[in-house]
Design goal:
The protein is 6% helix and 44% strand. The protein is mainly beta. Strand 64 and strand 65 form a beta hairpin. Helix 6 runs antiparallel to helix 11.
Amino acid sequence: MKVSCLVTLLLIGYSAVGLPPLLAGQGPLFLVEPPPRLEFSNSSGGRLDCSAQGSPSPALRWILSDGAPALPVPGLRLSLRNGSLAFPPFAAASFRPDVHAATYRCVAANALGRALSREVKLRAVVLQHYEVRVLGAFVTRGNAAVLKCHVPSVVREYLTVTSWLQDGTFNIYPSSDGDDKFHMLPTGELLVLNAGPADAYSSYHCRVTHRLSGQTMVSSIPGKITISEARGVLAPQLEERVIHVEARRDELVTLPCFVTGHPPPEYRWFLGGQSQLTPVPEDERRYPLGPLLVILRARPADSGRYLCSASNSGGGERLEVSLVVSAPLSARVNPARQAAAVGRSAEFACTASGHPVTTITWAKDGQPLREGPRVHLVSRSRIRVESVQREDEGIYQCFVKNDHDMAQGSAELRLGDAPPLLVYRFIRQTIQPGPSVSLKCIASGNPTPNIKWTLDGFPLPQNERFMIGQYVAVHGDVISHVNITGVRVEDGGTYECVATNRIGEARHSAQLNVYGAPHVRAMGDISAIAGETLRVSCPVGGFPVDSIQWLRGDRLLPVNRRQIVFTNGTLVIEKVQPSQDGGAYTCTASYKGGRKASGTAHVNVMVPPKLNPFSARSDLHLGERVGLQCTVSRGDPPLLIEWLKDGVPLPSSGPDLVVRSIDEFTSLVSIAALSPAHSGNYTCLARNGVAQASHSAAISVNVPPSWIVEPQNKNAELGQQVMLDCQVEGFPKPTISWKRATDMKPGQYRGLPFHGQGIQVFPNGSLLLEAVRQEDEGPYLCEAGNGVGVGLSAVVTLSVNAPVHFKVRSRKEVVRRGASAVLRCRALGDAPIAIAWRRDDGARVDMLPRVSVKNTSVPEGLFSELTIQEAKREDGGVYTCLARNAFGQDQMALHLLVQDAPSMPTELRLVDAGSRRASLSWTPPQDGHSPITRYVVRYKAAEDSWRSSSAEVSVDGSSSSATLSQLLPATTYLVRVLAENQLGEGEPSAELRVRTAEEPPSAPPRGVLVEARAPRQLHVLWEPPPAESWNGALRGHYVGLREHSVSKGNNQYNFTTVPWQANGKAECRLDSLKKFAKYGIVVQAFNSKGAGPMSEEVVAQTLEDVPEAAPRSVRCMPLSPDSLQISWQPPAQDLTHGVVQGYRLFYETSPSEESDHTDSLTKMTPSLSTDLHGLLKYTNYSIQVLAFTRVGDGVRSTAIHCRTKEDVPGPPAAIKALPMSADSVLVAWMPPKQPNGHVVEYGLYVRGVEAGRPVDSRALHTPHLEMEVTELKRRARYEFWVTAFTKVGEGQSTPVASASPTPQGAVAAAVASFGGSVAVAWRRDVRLPCRAVGVPSPQRQWLAGEAPVGSRRPRAQLAPDGALFLPNVQRADDGDYTCRVWNEHGRDVITHHLVVQVPPAPPLLLATAASAHSVSLQWKIGDEGGSAVRGVALHVKAEGGEWEEIRVERGRSTHQLTGLRCGTQYRVYATAHNRIGVGAPSAQLSVRTQGGRPQLPPPARDMLAVEPPGNGSAGAVALRLSRWPDGGCPIQRFVVEYSSNGDWIVVGNNILVHDSFPLVGLSPATLYRLRITAINSAGSAQGSYQFTTPGGSSDYSVEFGVSSSGDPSGGTGRSTPMLKDARVLVPAIAAVLALVLATGAGICLCFRLKPSPPTTSATQQEQSTASMENKHNLAQREQYYASARKAPPSPAPPNPGFTTLDRIPEYAEDIYPYATFHVPTDVTDAPGATKMQTFGFREGTLGSCESSAVAVPRKVSRTTHLKHSKGEFHRRKRCGERRGARGDRRDSEDYDSFGSESDTEQGTSSRTESSNQLEESVPATLPVSAVAPEPTHLNLLYPGPESSTSPEPSPVAERRSFPRTGKPSSRRCGAVGPTVPVSESSEAECEAEKCRRASPHFLAMQSTKDFSIRV
């Protein structure tokens, strides 16, 4: 039989690890609970509101009294999304009792429980017609008559008697005192005291109001009192003996005692029943009134039995009155939340308030509480749960109820944590193979446990026969089972179930034995934890098993004390060791008959992870940053590090939270800004394959109180329950207190007077007033605080409804005849209020002709106006305003007098005005035949209306002036005056327009925001103050800046002016600040009257930058021959500019006189010292240190030098043993290549060898490099080797050299010296040794290359010892020198390779890119001079500045010049240096940063905007400064000036660029001249305008004229014709005269410029200068051809105006004589203009021209450097002058330094192709208009080059750009105009060109081009 397997996995709200921690969730709790009763009419409809909170958020639904769901009924009952239940208006025929007359309850439920609201009795009333009548009363004379209002029973409970009407005129309202005759009871009856015959003639009506519809009705049939005369004595008689009276707390209660008798009886009141009576104490709250007992503000304590005793002479009678005073019910269960462990007890108590409390019932999760053995009622208000179980969790509620009210309170019971408990276990079984088996475990616990199964410690087999099921039962128990189908032998073993949750675990195991031969299941890899105990069970199936053995390799276990093998096959290894216990283990099971089965397990021993503890501060606040770093200090990888927050995995990123993995062993949680959501326990969990480790730290964020529910003003009816909410949150939990104002205005507060249970404060902070009283009205203060921050407070006002009343009961109204009479009455009280008007005769007036009534609702009640059109005399009289509401009625009498009013005042005028006041006067009007009592001055803002926004000031009627105060500055007001006498107000006067003066702004700017955008820059943004606080036209803002420090008082603000742009926002950029420094910024607004208050200081910090200083006190100490210790101090704090992240060391071997070889290395460290290892021995190192921040590297320190310690030397480099005679041998050797110190001596070891054995051994010592060993045996073979000695010791030896003495007279020639490479600095003497040995003496010959040295090196000399001496070596002496020696017995040869080192050649310098403030340079060094280049120096000079030197470390070939001025010319050259010295300078490079001076000013229509005049002002001119073209360099500031009378007024000289800058304070009808100067780093430009402000109210016009380099036609106004304008005509005439003079001067100049022989001293000086420059140029050309090599391709440069090295021709053959290169235009050239320049190459001398001064505008020539003089004259090339021929060069002059300063300034040196190309960044010619010349000079002689108007290059210029090959010089034509290079052969053409340019036609033609005239 097979067992079917049921696998059910039900996870009901639980995860695998169980429930979240206690109180992580919350059961449902009602926030808004429906009222106990809801009544509405079918015409209005109604709604039941319900809301609840909880976690998870509870679901809301509605049920009926029987528990059935209240489903939606279309058109009658609707369920809203917010949980409310709505009942729309419905027709009478649609009434349904199950919908409209039912009891409802709101149900809130979530996963933690279910809660019920109180019952809601809903009644929908169908409105229907009814009649009201008054029943007559019969009374004996002298007694009290009682009149009752009779209404139908169907509407009785919805009608309220509001008043009685006597004879239709006199209203009687309920009151506590009444009067001596009438008293209306709160229950609606009318009591007529001491009824007499006169009362029988009056009729009485009752007035009722339907409280659902608001309809008011007066009884149709009046009631009358019938008076009867008593006949004799009449004992008191009662109609009723027992009366029941119900009232609410604080209501007015009257207990009636209606008794009839004669004489009228006397009344006495007692407390208690019939048996025990106590007289009722009388006080101000409780007193008798005739047959009544009046109780004011009834309290529940007043409830009870009252006895009325009425007696007269005829007897007595008693009436019992039962009084019940009810108070709203409320309930609360304590504790509100309770956690109880399983098996413990829990108890809840219900606290009820209110009166009366009739029943208290309990419910759990919305169902009635069932008592049982564990749950029972201790009392009706207390329950107890014994031995709490899981099913006891949920919501417990107590319901408090009486006949009219119901309330509920709730509490939540949660289970505490409990470890798992196995409540059911499977048993041990022994079976045969084949049947099916089921194993089951049942576990309980909290959180819900999870059950896992194992077999012999291993997971269950994964096949179709094994089925595992697990589910959660109803009561929370977990049921898990394993079903095995068709059991086999291999299924046998020990089965174990393990139940776990976060609290603990429980396990159970039992054996399942299956008969059969043993079978060992596969064990696979087993992970063991190092240092812990490993327990492995042999997974053997089969039964019975005789024995089980374990083996490790071939050895039977155990083999040591840590190993234990149990008989059941379990292997235990204690304290597992990784090195000893890992490997393969085999278990073997034996069965009877010798059958065996084996299995192998591989044990991997791993070290478990271990964490370093971490924690967080306890004083964390909102917005702070915090980080937790988790480091695994120990454990085998792979490691997995996870973070949990409150047991839940933490995402890698969230709001202001990031989890970063620093490396494999470290993880970091970083929180950028703490918030309440970040509070909790943070757990770092690290695991590997065998174990896991965790560490937790708590983060508690102190949070100031914040509102959950902020208190709100509330209105309440008298006696109504009121809840004032005040709920806050924060950490720690805030405390909440309530106070009440001492009077009706907030200010002083006192604690609340708690009247018994009338006032209650709930734990959530809400204030409950059970039944409000009239004296409860007023302001209330709720305060909350928790010690964090300043706390919270809120003032709310509780308004209590009161009866309608009038503050003034009578008033007289005066109206002039024929006008409309308006009678006003303001009824104060709660709505709804009804007002009726009556005449003194009682007639209604609203139906009369010419009469209208208008009622207007106002916040405090109802405002009614009775208007009588065209009032007549007979309209005078008394008008009564009758008002009533549900709480009372009142009336007001108005006496109307119809007379005339005064006329309007005249000649209203302004006497004086200030910023907030204005003095007025007027002429008094006619008084209307009645004395003027007062004048009313009414005023309003010009844009407001008179009706809604006017204010007024009253002045005594005897005065004719007034002062208006509390006005707003800079505001236009309309004022009018009217007179008033006893009859009323007259007509107002004509309006007077008054404008107040300005005053400084009264509020600071808002929303100041500071952003750091650069290390030296802050960007400030803000909004202006509120417009109402400007107090005038806002002119701008002052931005104050100061460096933020502790002593703020000593640090004043530096202010910057920012004009107002009128666009709603403002901004300012603050530059040149300190890096990484804190600054305080304030902003204040200003107008024409001054500055307003400053904003609160905002502290901001500039961005971080690289350190500006190097580390200090760098020290070095050698530690060993191959290590150094370096230490230093950090840079000065004020120069760090950030947080130092670490330090970077640069160390290299220092170049020496012997070697240029250097090894550069770097090392980075965060500490202030480090050790350098692996260095060369006894080597001098150069060491530099720099600090770096997050931005980058700082400045390197000055290099220090340190040498490693000395060590034993290496072997000598070479050894020779040369026979010299029959008994001597010369041994020579070379010094060691690695001396590792100072070699003090050498050891020479000699050993003779005969027949293979040593015969003569000796050791010799010498400081020299050779030694003759004598006294040797003839023909014996000797071995020699050499070692070197330092002070440390002896080093290694050379290889063994052998030699034998030769017979005397037969020694072969040999060279004892050593050849090799010799490097020497130029201009030194060199000695090349060549010592020879041999007998006979050898002959010697020196070769230079392959030729004898004498033919190649005539300066070479032969020394007596055979050495070759070269004095004062030059670079030409480089090469191989060979020494040959020979005699008849042999020959030998050595070669010396001589390298002469010289300074490096000039670098080839290029400008590759340029921007407005930077230039990128690139260079290439061709010939290094035989010695490695150690660095490059860049020399930079700005136009008009001084030379500056910039050092660039070796290895770099590029550099960017930064911080340059925009649009500025710079000159740059470079020099390189090596060990020998500094090389010649490169060709000077002339570069210009991008941009230029401001361009021509914009036309007036773009530059100026005019605000039309209005409000008494002349208008304002707005300057659109942002429209001025900046020429490529940002405009830094403007200077604005204006003049109206010849004197210039400076508006500002540091005005920034703005979209709209207003000019205010201008006079009307005035002609102004305006002068604006734009300034940037490249220069300035100026424009002039003029305009006329309007005057009066006439049309205005503006005239603009441009008088600078702007567009003269740009004005939009009217202007004088140009030919009639003297300002144009006079300069034009002057220009014509200048043209004539220029023509004559040009003709003369043509003849004077002919070439003349150079006979003067100046000519000789020119030739000398030319000779020096030609030498320099030739050196450049040779250096170029020697250095220019093909560079790897580089990307196109970012700026097409610059080139890179890969564009330079590689060899001289690549440059053609007339090669054409592209010369880019300057940034100021016209777009699209293309300029080509032809370069000529030739071997001869290149000519140059002398500079001559010509008056031209400021230009830049490509081939000459400019030098300005005071007269703005510039040097230009003069045609026809020649340079002197190049002189001879001496060798000593080949590497001279850079030339003199005069050469540099003149810039006349001739250039090779490379130097010409270096200057392509500056074009040869520039258009005049492109450079933006200063508009202060009139220049008609040099209008500009032709290239300014033509984008095409000149063909003549292309053909004649350079001289042809073989020609000695080049010329430049034209002393004026553009420079045109020509050849010398074209002298005639040059002269003709000069003359042509001097002709009037040419000059006139040029005058029409781009130039500027300022008039």
